[in-house]
């Protein structure tokens, strides 16, 4: 079978290898779609702190089951499936408390172990989720990033009845805003410097959008929520400026959830965090309940990923897809590869 391996910065090398032989607990999928995400792009340029060359990427995937191991139950040949890409130890303190997304020895498929950038991919059946009827393989490949949003909105407890601000309207910001609506937020404001991305957020049903390159965050909040103000902030950009903006605009005693990935260590206004009893809460990936609920939200139309699929490339064009993203940063939300 054909596989694509990132062998050095900006170099994807195709090669022929044997089709995997599955273990009794595994299934074999014929990969249909994989997604390219921010961490793949960091890896592509050799800038990912926890990834090294060579690596076969692909942690966002959808495929059709073509073989089922002898111990696997409830999954059949022909099923359209996706996989939760987390390999964890089941033994450490986070794992034992159900928070395996922060397992002490977490390995992510396509980041630390070989991913789905290949024609046939073997996966532990415990990581497999079936795709509901009517959902395409393309959309199924976007479940993984959507689940990041669902987990994020659950990190401070519940957003029910709250006025929510999401900073950053890229894929993760967008899905966080959609997840907040799905989880019963009173209203959601999403902010960005890109009118294009804000327009997409509007298409996904997010009630309030504001270009904070043109209006102040304070005015945007007043416009969206009137005198009520914002009850919680989700920082989905990954820079210090937006964290500090959240700190400046938050009501006392409220939460700021950190979803963005930081390339550098920013200076944060900790004096206000202390004085106003803010909680800064981190969020990483998701656990199984988040993932399954994401599938259900997408099937029910409560999270709409269609507008986020910016472009689909053929497997042979994998390298071109990365070049496209480089040249079209603003317009590249979710880029998919089709096998
Ligand atoms: Zn991803
Ligand atoms: Zn663990």
Protein architecture, described:
The chain has helices spanning 38-44, 93-96, 137-140, 143-154, 171-182, 195-203, 217-225, 240-249, 270-275, 288-299, 318-327; strands spanning 2-8, 11-16, 26-36, 61-68, 80-83, 86-87, 107-108, 120-124, 128-130, 163-167, 187-192, 208-211, 232-235, 255-258, 279-282, 309-314, 334-338. It has 339 residues and is of the alpha/beta class. Strands 3, 4, 5, 8, 9, 16 and 17 form a 7-stranded mixed β-sheet that branches. It is globular, with a radius of gyration of 20 Å. The N and C termini lie close together (12 Å). The relative contact order is 0.15. One zinc ion (ZN) is lined by residues 88-89, 91-92, 94-95, 100, 103-105. One zinc ion binds at residues 37, 39, 59-60, 144-145.
Portion of residues in beta strands equals 25-35%
**Gross morphology:** globular
Alpha-carbon Rg, integer: 20 Å
Structural class: alpha/beta
Oligomerization category of the chains in this entry: single chain
Mean pLDDT: 97
- Terminal-residue CA separation: 12 Å
The SSE order reads EEEHEEEHEEEHHEHEHEHEHEHEHEHE
How many strands, which pairing sense, and closed or not: the largest β-sheet?
7 strands, mixed
Number of helices: 11
Q: Classify the helix fraction into a percent range.
A: 25-40%
Q: Give the ligands present.
A: zinc ion
Number of strands: 17
Instruction: Give start-end ranges of low-pLDDT stretches.
Output: none
């Amino acid at each position: 079978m054909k596989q694509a391996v990132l062998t050095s910065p900006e170099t994807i090398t195709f090669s022929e290898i044997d089709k995997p032989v599955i273990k009794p607990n595994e299934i074999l999928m014929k990969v249909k779609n994989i997604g390219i995400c921010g961490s793949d792009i960091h890896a592509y340029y050799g800038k990912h702190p926890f990834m090294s060359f060579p690596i076969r990427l692909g942690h966002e995937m959808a495929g059709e089951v073509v073989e089922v191991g002898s111990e696997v139950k409830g999954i059949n040949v022909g099923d359209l499936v996706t996989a939760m890409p987390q390999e964890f130890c089941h033994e450490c303190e986070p794992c034992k408390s159900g928070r395996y997304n922060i397992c002490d020895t977490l390995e992510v498929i396509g980041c630390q172990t070989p991913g789905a950038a290949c024609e046939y991919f073997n996966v532990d059946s415990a990581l497999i989720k079936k795709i509901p009827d009517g959902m395409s393989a393309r959309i199924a490949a976007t479940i993984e990033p959507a689940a990041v949003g669902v987990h994020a909105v659950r990190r401070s407890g519940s957003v029910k009845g709250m006025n929510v601000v999401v900073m950053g309207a890229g894929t993760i910001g967008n899905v966080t805003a959609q997840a907040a609506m799905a989880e019963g937020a009173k209203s959601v404001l999403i902010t960005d410097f890109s009118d294009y991305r804000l327009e997409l957020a509007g298409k996904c049903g997010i009630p309030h959008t504001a270009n904070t390159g043109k209006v102040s965050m304070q005015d945007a909040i007043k416009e969206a929520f009137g005198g009520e103000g914002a009850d919680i902030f989700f920082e989905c950009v990954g820079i210090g400026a937006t964290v500090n903006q959240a700190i400046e605009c938050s009501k006392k005693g409220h939460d700021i959830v950190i979803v963005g990935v930081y390339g550098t260590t920013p200076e944060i206004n900790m004096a206000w965090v202390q004085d106003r009893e803010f909680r800064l809460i981190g969020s990483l990936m998701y656990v199984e309940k988040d993932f399954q609920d994401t599938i259900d939200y997408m099937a029910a139309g409560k999270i709409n990923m269609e507008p986020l699929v910016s472009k689909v490339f053929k497997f042979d064009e994998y390298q071109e897809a990365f070049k496209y993203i480089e040249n079209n940063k603003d317009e590249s939300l979710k880029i998919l590869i089709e096998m």
